[in-house]
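A reminder from the course coordinator: this example appears on the midterm review sheet, so study it carefully.

Given structure:
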């Protein structure tokens, strides 16, 4: 139960989502209005500050006294709480590094995710999306859009990006799916899938070292800035960071478009879907490494901080009528991809992927509709990311 006094910070329970409740939780609005920062405790007893105002979220994500490194005492490691295997110990897991170590990885990766590079990937993305739609149409007049479309598309796109040979794509797709299927896979299965993927990626790097091709791995090897173990960690990060995030946005976006059909065919829906759903609400994890003041609240060195991007993206001080899905809105400063030096590296790729996914899906299946009432869609409350376990559709 929440408690608050005028002198003490408000203390709220964790996890933050309750089954049956809409997302973002209406309580976020109260937290934002009251104090901005609220205090919570992870099941391991670690203290964590939750940041809810748009302005404060951006301030946290650009403050050098606040670190992304999970090795620091007090880091809010929520993986254990949310049923996800920990990968942070893998060398090359640069989302968990601070400057200057982080800069080396970021600099090496940026050329692979420019608008131009992503534009070159368009035909491959279009092909992947078309093939998935062909398979759904061939299978009948209904589908689970999560399993049959939203999950495989990003996984196949990433495997193309990494230069995974076509014969291995099924292996790749099935193992990445196990990682995100928190409902139907056990901790043990997810752990095994992680190990298998890492082994596969190590082998792939060794092959590209001997026989370079025109792909991301070969180009990164050619820069000579990352050693092969680091490179494997980087590839695992790309794989994990870009899979379920994109899949959840695609699935939730389709539902939103079905509920707001006047926006079908308008590419502005992509950006608004990202803001509106803010699936990566619990992704940016931080810890104070020095005492720091946020919104008038003293946060001590060694205390965890989670800037809640969904709360920030629904802040009425930053967005007009934030709870309205309005692709025509002109505010473009949402933080669905984070902010500052760790801002999502894959954002150009995601935008193109979502645009192609929505456009092709509604072009090829114009009478697409939900097969169950919207209130019965199984929302994911038990993972780090918000999304849907299933999306039954028919046409
Ligand atoms: C809609 C889909 C996506 C969302 C909502 C999303 C969200 C985010 C967020 C919030 C962060 C910041 C993490 C932090 O502050 O600690 C981040 C970082 C990152 N994302 Fe994404 N992401 C998406 C898709 C992708 C894709 C497709 C890729 C690559 C293939 C990718 C690669 C990365 C990487 C490598 C980082 C770490 C960047 C760094 O530390 O410098 N993401 N993402």
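Designed residues:
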């Amino acid at each position: 139960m929440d408690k608050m006094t005028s002198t003490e910070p408000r203390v709220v329970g964790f996890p933050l989502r309750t089954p049956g409740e809409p997302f973002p939780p209406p309580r976020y609005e109260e937290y934002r209005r009251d104090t901005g920062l609220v205090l919570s405790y992870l099941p391991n007893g670690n203290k964590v500050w939750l940041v809810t105002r748009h302005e404060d979220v951006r301030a946290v994500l650009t403050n050098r006294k606040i670190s992304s490194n999970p090795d620091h005492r007090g880091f809010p490691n929520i993986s254990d709480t949310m049923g996800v295997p920990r990968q942070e110990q893998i060398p090359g897991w640069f989302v968990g590094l601070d400057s200057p170590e982080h800069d080396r990885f970021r600099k090496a990766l940026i050329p692979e995710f420019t608008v131009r590079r992503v534009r070159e990937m368009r035909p491959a993305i279009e092909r992947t999306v078309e093939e998935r739609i062909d398979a759904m149409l061939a299978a009948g007049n209904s589908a689970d859009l999560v399993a049959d479309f939203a999950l495989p598309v990003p996984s196949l796109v990433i495997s193309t990006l990494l230069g995974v040979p076509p014969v291995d794509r099924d292996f790749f797709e099935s193992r990445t799916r196990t990682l995100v299927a928190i409902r139907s896979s056990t901790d043990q299965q997810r752990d095994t899938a992680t190990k298998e993927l890492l082994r596969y990626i190590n082998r792939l790097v060794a092959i590209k070292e001997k026989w370079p091709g025109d792909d991301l791995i070969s180009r990164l090897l050619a820069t000579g800035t990352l050693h092969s173990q680091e490179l494997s960690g980087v590839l695992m990060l790309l794989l994990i960071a870009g899979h379920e995030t994109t899949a959840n946005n695609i699935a939730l976006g389709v539902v939103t478009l079905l509920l707001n059909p006047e926006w079908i065919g308008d590419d502005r829906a992509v950006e608004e879907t990202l803001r509106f759903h803010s699936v990566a609400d619990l992704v940016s994890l931080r810890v104070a490494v020095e005492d720091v003041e946020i919104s008038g609240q003293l946060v001590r060195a060694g205390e965890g901080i989670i800037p809640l991007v969904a709360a920030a993206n629904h802040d009425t001080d930053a967005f007009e009528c934030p709870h309205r899905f309005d692709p025509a809105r002109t505010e473009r400063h949402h933080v669905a991809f984070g902010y500052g030096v760790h801002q999502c590296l894959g954002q150009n790729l995601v935008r193109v992927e979502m645009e192609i996914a929505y456009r092709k899906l509604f072009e090829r299946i114009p009478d697409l509709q939900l097969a169950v009432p919207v209130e019965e869609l199984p929302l994911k409350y038990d993972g780090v990311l918000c999304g849907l376990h299933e999306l039954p559709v028919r046409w």
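The first helix runs from residue 27 to 34. Confidence is low (pLDDT under 50) at residues 1-6.
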